[in-house]
Amino acid sequence: MIDHKTIKVWINLYLDGELAGDELEQFKQHIKECAECAKILKQQRDFVDSIRILKEEINIDFNDFKTELVKQIEKFKPKKSKTFIRSFSLVMVAIFFIGVLLTIYFYSQRTDLAAIAVENHIRQINGQLPLEIQTSSEAEISNWFDKKLKFNFRLPRYPDPSNQPYRIKGARLVALNNDYAALVSYEMDGRPMTLLVAPSKSASPHGKRKVNFKDINFYLDTRDGFNILSWTDKGLTYALVFDFENFDWKKPCIVCHSSGTKEM
Amino acid sequence: MFEKIKKEIINSIDSLLRYALAMTGNEEDAKDLVQETCYKALKNMDSLDENSNVKAWLFTIMRNLWLNQRKRNLISPIHLDETIENVSDEWNINPEELLINNEMRQLLMKALNDLPDAYKEILILRYFEDFSYSEISKILDCPLGTVMSRLNRAREKLKEAFLKIYEKK
């Protein structure tokens, strides 16, 4: 049996909606059975209700003030929080660093096309890399490569190839970074010359000397007794390997830049 | 979410004005306090989430602003250690009677206004604004037990003050 003192404490908790569970049940039971506590509950409820009535006494006319305040609140545009700005800056810095790291990774993963070109040139002249198409026609070679490569590569065509100082012997695919590169075989002044072409995202030009000509960096090098001219242009990296006598760096360029009018 | 909070701020203006008026006892000070409260709330809306109790948060802001204006110690509970004399459970006034009797209502209002601020504000939070004990403890930044004991004293003090005035009549 709950004593009256406890019930008196519980009366206020009950009226304020703060009594729950077993206590609430015990309280209700006690009030049912105890007339004295029921009377106190009624008096206290009347008192609390009287306080609540006073709420309506505060009825000063604040309408003009309220209208103006509501307008100001509705007009208010929240500024970006410092937390948001800080988070945004951190994300941007993180993106920048990831970009730098990816770029470094990308460049570090690119193959030295000059080295691969020399290797393929040696194997080609040793008969270890037979040509897959044998023709002197630029058009036939371009068509043969079509759909075999993941990049677009076409040889320039000249109206009268017989006038050129070089001769196309044929072409083939060679493996490069789990994909294929295009190898074109030439003969100039009775000497073999090969052109290896690969996408610039997987192969880069290399050479001890760098020459800038018409906004393109040409790399010149000599390895294993062969001369290598490599460069990147329009998403492709090229490497020409040759061993001409009376060596002239500009001489191999004639395979693409003949004096005749180009046909595409 | 900001629009939802703004709407809740607008819906709380009446309650804030009532509380501010009771605390300041002055219409102009009450308006300033409410305006400052709303402005501070708008600037800090991003500290809330979907489940935040916006009304209780607004009252907390307003009370802190008010305390800062009043130099905190003036409203400190340390001034509230008065004992309650001859506390009586008796309250033989019917609320319906109070509704009809304007003079009696004004006497009770006077008794409320004459209470120390700490008692007045806790009665307003509970009986004008219907905040729970838990919400009041957050607004007043005090333990739940303090809310219960202070509310108890506030009720008894109001009853005592009213009966003193009423019996003199």
From TrEMBL, chain A:
Domain Putative zinc-finger positions: 10-38
Transmembrane ranges, per UniProt, are: 84-107
Write the record's keywords in alphabetical order, separated by commas: Membrane, Transmembrane, Transmembrane helix
InterPro entries listed in its UniProt record: Anti_sigma_zinc_sf (IPR041916), Znf_put (IPR027383)
Name of the protein: Transmembrane transcriptional regulator (Anti-sigma factor RsiW)
Species the sequence originates in: Candidatus Kryptonium thompsonii
Automatic annotation (TrEMBL), chain B:
Keyword Lyase in the entry? The reply is no
Any one GO molecular-function label of the UniProt entry: sigma factor activity
Instruction: Give all residue intervals belonging to the RNA polymerase sigma factor 70 region 4 type domain.
Output: 106-158
Q: Which domain of life is it from?
A: Bacteria
**UniProt KW keywords:** DNA-binding, Sigma factor, Transcription, Transcription regulation
Q: Which InterPro entries match?
A: RNA_pol_sigma-70-like, RNA_pol_sigma-70_dom, RNA_pol_sigma70_r2, RNA_pol_sigma70_r4_t2, RNA_pol_sigma_r2, RNA_pol_sigma_r3/r4-like, WH-like_DNA-bd_sf
Please list the GO biological process terms of this entry.
DNA-templated transcription initiation
Q: Name one Pfam family in it.
A: Sigma70_r4_2
Domain RNA polymerase sigma-70 region residues, every copy: 16-73
Cross-referenced PANTHER family? RNA POLYMERASE ECF-TYPE SIGMA FACTO, RNA POLYMERASE SIGMA FACTOR HI_1459-RELATED
In which family does this protein belong, per the annotation? Belongs to the sigma-70 factor family. ECF subfamily.
Name of protein: RNA polymerase sigma-70 factor, ECF subfamily
Natural source organism: Candidatus Kryptonium thompsonii
